[in-house]
Amino acid sequence: MTAVTLKPACAAQSDNHVLLAPNNQLHSSMTLLRNKETSHRDFVLAFQKVAAQLVAKALDFVPVEVETIVTPTGTSYTGCKQTAKVCGISILRAGASLEDAFRNAYNGPVSFGKLLIQRDEETALPKYLYSKFPSGMSQSIVFLLEPMLATGGSICKAVELVMERGVPESNIVIVNVMSSRFALSVVADRFPQLKIVTAAIDETLNSQKFIEPGLGDFGDRFYCTD
Ligand code: URA
């Protein structure tokens, strides 16, 4: 099948890299996520608000076609409908946190896949452990759900695995809460046609490869496991 041409959601970093436009609601939600004193419950609630904005922006990459309908006043209205097949692939475990927002936001059916990639402690390289991809993924716009991009290693592996199954690079959109500047450049150099939508870009990675200022271990804070 021919690749669908995806339009940029807004001009922020570049056509392919979208940083959510600053707004007070987003900033205060991100401040709650970053604050180490935020309770588990408030962390999850703040995350849901960020996720709703992120996913709405990411779904702007889904092409639409004109649809004319009639309103209850009997008036014809020219609107649009999202037509492409869409799937979300959660990079486990943190990526699964974005599934609800994605399911709630899309005006059509969404299928979900899972991908487990872990860092090999001996080689420090990302190691593929498990995947379950939706059938028809190669004809879909694929949203890779990954809240944190620190070194870019795991996400590059994930993109590679999805492309090996026939998805064109230009049909892949990464949905990300926070990225290091380093990870963004790694991903952009390797996959220039890939789309990334993110809520925050931080400048530093510490010696343990955590993003700084960052928000700590996303999975532990979201799933309350630390
Ligand atoms: N994953 C996290 O959860 N936090 C980071 O800072 C980096 C990767």
From TrEMBL:
<keyword id="KW-0342">GTP-binding</keyword>
<dbReference type="InterPro" id="IPR029057">
    <property type="entry name" value="PRTase-like"/>
</dbReference>
<comment type="similarity">
    <text>Belongs to the UPRTase family.</text>
</comment>
<keyword id="KW-0808">Transferase</keyword>
<dbReference type="GO" id="GO:0005525">
    <property type="term" value="F:GTP binding"/>
</dbReference>
<comment type="pathway">
    <text>Pyrimidine metabolism; UMP biosynthesis via salvage pathway; UMP from uracil: step 1/1.</text>
</comment>
<keyword id="KW-0547">Nucleotide-binding</keyword>
<dbReference type="GO" id="GO:0008655">
    <property type="term" value="P:pyrimidine-containing compound salvage"/>
</dbReference>
<protein>
    <recommendedName>
        <fullName>uracil phosphoribosyltransferase</fullName>
        <ecNumber>2.4.2.9</ecNumber>
    </recommendedName>
</protein>
<dbReference type="Pfam" id="PF14681">
    <property type="entry name" value="UPRTase"/>
</dbReference>
<keyword id="KW-0328">Glycosyltransferase</keyword>
<dbReference type="GO" id="GO:0004845">
    <property type="term" value="F:uracil phosphoribosyltransferase activity"/>
</dbReference>
<dbReference type="InterPro" id="IPR000836">
    <property type="entry name" value="PRTase_dom"/>
</dbReference>
<feature type="domain" description="Phosphoribosyltransferase">
    <location>
        <begin position="23"/>
        <end position="225"/>
    </location>
</feature>
<keyword id="KW-0021">Allosteric enzyme</keyword>
